[in-house]
Description:
This protein is an all-alpha fold. It has helices at residues 6-35, 39-75, 79-107, 111-115, 120-130, 132-147, 151-174, 178-200, 211-243, 247-284, 287-323, 327-359, 363-385, 391-419. It is 88% helix and 0% strand. Helix 1 (6-35) runs parallel beside helix 7 and helix 5 packs parallel to helix 8.
Amino acid sequence: MExxxxxxxxxxxxxxxxxxxxxxxxxxxxxxAISTIGILELGAIGAMSVVINLMQMSIQTIxxxxxxxxxxxxxxxxxxxxxxxxxxAIIMTLLISLITIVIIYLIQPIFPSLFDxxxxxxxxxxxxxxxxxxxxxxTVLSGYQRTIGKQGVILKLRIFAVILNLFMDIIAxxxxxxxxxxxxxxxxxxxxxxxxxxxxSKNDVEYSFKTDLFKQIWNLFKWNFVERIASKxxxxxxxxxxxxxxxxxxxxxxxxxxxxxIYEAFIQGFGDGITITVGIASGNKSKKSIDNIKIxxxxxxxxxxxxFPLIVFVISIVIMKISLKTEELQIIFFKVLPxxxxxxxxxxxxxxxxxxxxxxxxxxFLAKRNIISSFVKILxxxxxxxxxxxxxxxxxxxxxxxxxxxxxxxIRYIKLHNML
Length: 420
């Protein structure tokens, strides 16, 4: 493996980061389109966005687990194995997608009372279930294409998708189809993306079930699943807490969560790029390459840690002007905004440790770390939500969560570094 430089690492990470960002913008575009209709509709789609994120979590887990194994195969120059890994990952994706669809369909009647939102949310989630399998295949195939070096192709595809989504959402809302029209637009786009990716990936995938490869994906998946489910559950609980504070607080919370998802997705893309290069280096068993990657990754994360909060601040003001137009909503927004910016800095600075640990497939530790930090986050949020801090207390718990995750990951990284 040739020596990685800051420029080369950015060439890998930036397209992935922007692709992740654009993928999240699909949801944000839906949210902003619905926010022009009213607070009740915004609350309904916001609550279901939390459910959809929880649904997608298992698929994202397969994606990350498969990508680390594929990266290792790339480092070993084993093309046949990497093709069979993605084939088995798709098989697992189809199985888990079908199970998820059945579970959500069975429990969807409780969502209006659970989140205290309008019953239109039930219709919305039913429509989104129709496109969930397509969305799942898109997630795994696009992740695979990125890992084997086709970041640019996937980035262009995502840009096309978000522009089409914005255009069709505007038409759906202006024609009076509202939240139902927005849901069908998303299903349509996920379907055409899936068809396209299946076609362009036909020479890169071998759909042949192999027990040993399936088990390797599963062994990483189960720990990665635990890592992700912990953070998804606490966000689920937080939405319930804030939804009961009032419609104004919940409307602000939905926008803040969308902003949080934006910076987390972008930062995750940076981390995924580092994870891929670490995974390839581990396949090569090259200590020199790994040490070089660590130096480059540290430089990138240090610069971005200073830069990203400023970018998020600018984006936040723009989004607020579009979706939170009354003075009452804006006052609540500005109370919580500083905590969002602090969380951005913490997440970016901690990504150095997260991405390297994922590159070495240390998902068992990451799962344990998330269980501990999520428990602290939930407990603190519940306590503070009943004080005069209200929604500010809930978001203060996010900051504590980020600090704890960074601290635990740094300790693990130092231990791993000393072992190598």
